[in-house]
Design a protein that fits this description.
Radius of gyration: 21 Å
Protein name: Xylanolytic transcriptional activator regulatory domain-containing protein
GO cellular component, one term: nucleus
Structural class: mainly alpha
Shape: globular
GO molecular function, one term: zinc ion binding
Largest sheet: none
Number of domains: 2
Strand content: under 5%
Helix content: 55-70%
Number of helices: 11
Distance between the termini: 40 Å
InterPro entries: Carb_Metab_Trans_Reg, XnlR_reg_dom
Order of helices and strands: HHHHHHHHHHH
Keywords: Nucleus
Length: 310
């Protein structure tokens, strides 16, 4: 059974249990209210990332989603500690709570990216993207870019990639990879919709920004330490890493010069190496490498033809 079919079953079961409905006023214990919210948002994230990596519609529709965001009171494990008031606190319980909340925020941004740039209504011939054109699409993307930038800027020190402790695993790497994947998804969509009529200055800005995001994402994977790779990685991590390679493949396929094609091929080799050397400790890296070879394994042909474009 595929992950998506399994997620569909979970969504159906959750809806039968009313997990998708606000239960604040229900006559149930406070611990159950918190548990329901946590389960609901975990399922929401699974659905959104599943839609992203498999290119399928959402299983949970916004019109049928009425769940409040989790609060500190939903996590009895925190006790009397207020994570927001103790941003320097680094206990595993607080870090786990913060990671979960930040993943929710990031997934909400991803949901808007998919709805705006990857939905059937947006991508079909004559759809919303065709109707608005590249310039208007970039304007629609700007608020999403700002939200991603603000999300990253507001991360506390305990969730920074370099915030590791001696002989302790660190799950921050998965959070930063997810952020990179959302950025890649957004800029990949903008590169895809460019046409010969795109203004030259805008064309260069979009491609240079996409290259910068690609380079940044590869460097992120290359900076993962053993504390990161041996920690928990969700089921979407392999696809998130492979999506970085897909961006390189798209830039390669739409490049205007051999130099740019060679640059893209070099980035793929850099990505391959980053995944290969971490594959022994991180199953997600091995799976990402397999997906990368399946999807864009042919970019090496660029290096074999230095005299011109194949």
């Amino acid at each position: 059974m595929s992950n998506r079919m399994f997620t569909a079953q979970l969504v159906a079961m959750a809806q039968d249990l009313g997990i998708h409905i606000d239960c604040s006023a229900w006559a149930i214990p406070a611990w159950e209210v918190g548990l329901r919210r946590r389960l609901a948002w975990a399922l929401y994230m699974q659905d959104r990332w599943g839609a992203c990596i498999h290119g399928r519609p959402f299983l949970i529709q916004d019109s049928d989603w009425d769940v409040r965001l989790c609060t500190v009171s939903d996590y009895p494990e925190l006790g009397a500690i207020d994570p927001e008031a103790n941003r320097d606190h680094t206990s595993p319980i607080i870090v786990g709570w913060d990671l979960f909340m930040r993943h929710i925020e990031l997934t909400q941004i991803l949901s808007d990216v998919i709805r705006t740039f990857y939905s059937a209504a947006a991508t079909r011939t004559g759809g919303t993207l065709d109707q608005m054109g590249v310039v208007a699409a970039v304007e629609r993307a700007k608020p999403l870019v700002f939200r991603l930038r603000e999300w990253h800027a507001n991360l506390p020190h305990r969730l920074q990639l370099q915030s590791t402790k001696l002989r302790e695993l660190c799950a921050n790497g998965a959070l930063h990879l997810a952020h990179a994947a959302v950025e890649i998804a957004l800029h990949r969509a903008l590169v895809r919709i460019m046409t010969p009529d795109t203004p030259g200055s805008l064309y260069e800005v979009l491609r240079s920004t996409a290259r910068a995001k690609l380079q940044s994402a590869i460097e992120l994977l290359g900076s993962l330490r053993p504390e990161h790779t041996a920690a928990f990685w969700g089921s979407a991590a392999a696809y998130q890493a492979a999506e970085i390679g897909s961006m390189a493949g798209l830039l390669w396929a739409t490049a205007d010069s051999f130099d740019e094609m060679a640059w893209c091929a070099a980035r793929v080799e850099e990505l391959r190496w980053a995944l290969r050397v971490r594959g022994a400790a991180a199953p997600f890296a091995r799976e990402a490498l397999r997906l990368l070879e399946r999807d864009i394994g042919g970019l090496g042909m660029v290096k074999a033809n230095p005299d011109g474009i194949p």
